[in-house]
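User: Can you recover a sequence for this backbone? Please restate the input before giving your answer.

Assistant: Of course. Working from this structure:
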C-alpha cells in the first residue's frame, strides 16, 4: 500500500465540510446529485429553479454550485451570472449540468461564468473526478488568497524598488526591494552613479540625458513609465519597468525612481503568446481533421438514390456533424427502401454512431432482403459495435415495386405519418420498438407494420428534433403545427414548407437538436426497376 502525503491527508479532511448548492428543476436529478455528493463527503442544499438558486446562494454561502441549464423562472445561464455578481472576492466554482452538448451550448455556459460543463446523463466516476479536481482548485485558491493577503499586509509600504538620485546621477538612497532586484547591498549603491545599473550604450549616455533635462527641460523618461533594460550585479540583463519623478527642491533637483523587475511578466507574456499560437495550430489541425471526417462520411452516402424525384428530405445539424441520417435505395426487384436514423447525442460522436449503418444498408438492399432481415442486420451491427449507452432511433420503410403495399418499422423516433394527397394524415405508425443497438435481434424485435397504399399517398418520417424545436420563450413547434403545415402545402413542396414554418417559429434562434425529415411519394419508381 502506498503512503499518503501528510499534506494530501490534510486536504482530504478539509474537503469533507464543503457545501454544494444543487440547482435543478427535476427532483430525481436533485436526489441523485445529493446521493453522489454524500458519497463523496460533501454536504448539499438544493434549489428547484434559477431564482431559488440565487436566493439560496445568498443565504447558504455554498462552496460550490451545480447548475442545471434549462430551468423555469430563471435559466442556469442567468442564475450563474447573478451568482458571479454576488460572490465578491471569494471564488465559487460553478459547474453547468445539461443534456445540451454542442459547442455553442458549452461556450454559452462558460461565457456566463461557469468553470466547467458536464453533459447529462452524468457518470458517477466522471462526476467524482470533476468534484475532486474542483475541490483541490478551490483549496489551492483559498490558500493562495490567504498567502497573498499576508504578503500584502507585510509589503504595502515596499511594493516596488525605490532609488533616489541627485542632479549628477549619484544615488542617495535605495530600499530593500531595489537592492534585491539588482543584487547589491545598500552600501554598494549609495554614493555611486546610477548608470552602473544600466547596460551600454545607456550607461555612457545617461549623464548627458540628465544634463539636457536640467538645461532645457526635455524629458525622455521623467514623468513617464517606461520599460527599459537594466543590469544586475552579476552582469545579467533584465526587463525593468521604470518611473521617474522630479522633486524640485528650493536649492536642487531630486529624482525618485520607482523600479520593478518585470522578468516574470515578460516570461508569462511569452508563454501566453506561445500557448495561443499552439492552440491556434491545434484548432486548425482539428478543423482539417473534422473536414476530412465529414468528407469521408459524405462519400459513403449514395447521393444518386437521394435524387429520386419521389423523395423530399432535409437534414439540419446543430454542429458540423449530424447524428441524423437519411438513406434511400432500390432493390433489384424494384422495391424502394428508405431509412431515417437518429443517433444519441450530437456532433461527431453521434455521426460516428450511425456510420456503420451506411454501407450495411446499401449492401443488404442490393441483396433484395426483406425489411425484417434489414432491421435485424443493422441492429446486430450496432449491438456489437456501439458502446453501452449509445443507440440509434430509426424508422425503416419498404415500398413494393407497384407502390400498392408497404412495410414500416419504427423504434425510438416519433410516429411516422401516412399522408393523403391533400396532406391529411390517414394513418399514424407509432414507435413500438426500442431503438436499434439495445437488445438482441429476434422475430419480435424485427417485426414490421404492413400498410395498404393508395395512389399518391406519401409517407413522412422525421426526428424528434423537429417537433421538439422551440424558441427561448418556450414556444414549441410541435406535432400540431407540423400537421397543419403538411395539410396546407402542395405535395411536392411539403418538406420545404415545414422547413420554412420551423424557421419562422425560431425567428433566427438556433435549434438545439439535429432536425431531419424524409418524405416518400408512394408511386412506382421511375426508369429501370418499375414494374
Amino acid at each position: 500500500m502506498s503512503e499518503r502525503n501528510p499534506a494530501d491527508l490534510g486536504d482530504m479532511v478539509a474537503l469533507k465540510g464543503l457545501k454544494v448548492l444543487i440547482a435543478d428543476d427535476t427532483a430525481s436529478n436533485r436526489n441523485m446529485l445529493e446521493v453522489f455528493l454524500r458519497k463523496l463527503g460533501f454536504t448539499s442544499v438544493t434549489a428547484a429553479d434559477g431564482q431559488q438558486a440565487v436566493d439560496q446562494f445568498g443565504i447558504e454561502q455554498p462552496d460550490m454550485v451545480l447548475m442545471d441549464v434549462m430551468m423555469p423562472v430563471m435559466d442556469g445561464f442567468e442564475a450563474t451570472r447573478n451568482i458571479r455578481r454576488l460572490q465578491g472576492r471569494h471564488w465559487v466554482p460553478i459547474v453547468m449540468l445539461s443534456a445540451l452538448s454542442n459547442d455553442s451550448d458549452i461556450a454559452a455556459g462558460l461565457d456566463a461564468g461557469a468553470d466547467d460543463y458536464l453533459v447529462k446523463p452524468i457518470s458517477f466516476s466522471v462526476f467524482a473526478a470533476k468534484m475532486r479536481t474542483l475541490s483541490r482548485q478551490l483549496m489551492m485558491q483559498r490558500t493562495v488568497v490567504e498567502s497573498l493577503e499576508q504578503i500584502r499586509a507585510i509589503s504595502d509600504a515596499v511594493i516596488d524598488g525605490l532609488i533616489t538620485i541627485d542632479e549628477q546621477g549619484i544615488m542617495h538612497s535605495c530600499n530593500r526591494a531595489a537592492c534585491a532586484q539588482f543584487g547589491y547591498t545598500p552600501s554598494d549603491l549609495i554614493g555611486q552613479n546610477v548608470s552602473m545599473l544600466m547596460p551600454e550604450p545607456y550607461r555612457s549616455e545617461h549623464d548627458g540625458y540628465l544634463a539636457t533635462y536640467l538645461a532645457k527641460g526635455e524629458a525622455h523618461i521623467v514623468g513617464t513609465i517606461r520599460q527599459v533594460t537594466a543590469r544586475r550585479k552579476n552582469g545579467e540583463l533584465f526587463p525593468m519597468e521604470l518611473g521617474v519623478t522630479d522633486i524640485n527642491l528650493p536649492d536642487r533637483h531630486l529624482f525618485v525612481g520607482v523600479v520593478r523587475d518585470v522578468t516574470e511578466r515578460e516570461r508569462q507574456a511569452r508563454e501566453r503568446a506561445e500557448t495561443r499560437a499552439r492552440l491556434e495550430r491545434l484548432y486548425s489541425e482539428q478543423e482539417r481533421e473534422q473536414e476530412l471526417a465529414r468528407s469521408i462520411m459524405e462519400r459513403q452516402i449514395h447521393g444518386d438514390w437521394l435524387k429520386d424525384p419521389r423523395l423530399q428530405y432535409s437534414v439540419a445539424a446543430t454542429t458540423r456533424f449530424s447524428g441524423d441520417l437519411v438513406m434511400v435505395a432500390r432493390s433489384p426487384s424494384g422495391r424502394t427502401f428508405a431509412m431515417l436514423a437518429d443517433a444519441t447525442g450530437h456532433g461527431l460522436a453521434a455521426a460516428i454512431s450511425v456510420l456503420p449503418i451506411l454501407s450495411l444498408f446499401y449492401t443488404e438492399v442490393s441483396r433484395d432482403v426483406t425489411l425484417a432481415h434489414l432491421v435485424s442486420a443493422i441492429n446486430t451491427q450496432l449491438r456489437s459495435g456501439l458502446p453501452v449507452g449509445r443507440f440509434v432511433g430509426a424508422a425503416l420503410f419498404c415500398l413494393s415495386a407497384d407502390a400498392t403495399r408497404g412495410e414500416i418499422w419504427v423504434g425510438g423516433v416519433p410516429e411516422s405519418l401516412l399522408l393523403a394527397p391533400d396532406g391529411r394524415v390517414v394513418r399514424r405508425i407509432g414507435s413500438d420498438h426500442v431503438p436499434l443497438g439495445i437488445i438482441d435481434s429476434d422475430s419480435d424485435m424485427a417485426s414490421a407494420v404492413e400498410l395498404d397504399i393508395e395512389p399518391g399517398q406519401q409517407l413522412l418520417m422525421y426526428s424528434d428534433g423537429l417537433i421538439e424545436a422551440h424558441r427561448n420563450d418556450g414556444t414549441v413547434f410541435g406535432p400540431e403545427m407540423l400537421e397543419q403545415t403538411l395539410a396546407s402545402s402542395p405535395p411536392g413542396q411539403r418538406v420545404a414548407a415545414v422547413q420554412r414554418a420551423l424557421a419562422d417559429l425560431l425567428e433566427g434562434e438556433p435549434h438545439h437538436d439535429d432536425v431531419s425529415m424524409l418524405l416518400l411519394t408512394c408511386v412506382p419508381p421511375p426508369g429501370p426497376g418499375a414494374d
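That completes the design. Residues 1-14, 151-156 have pLDDT under 50 and may be disordered.
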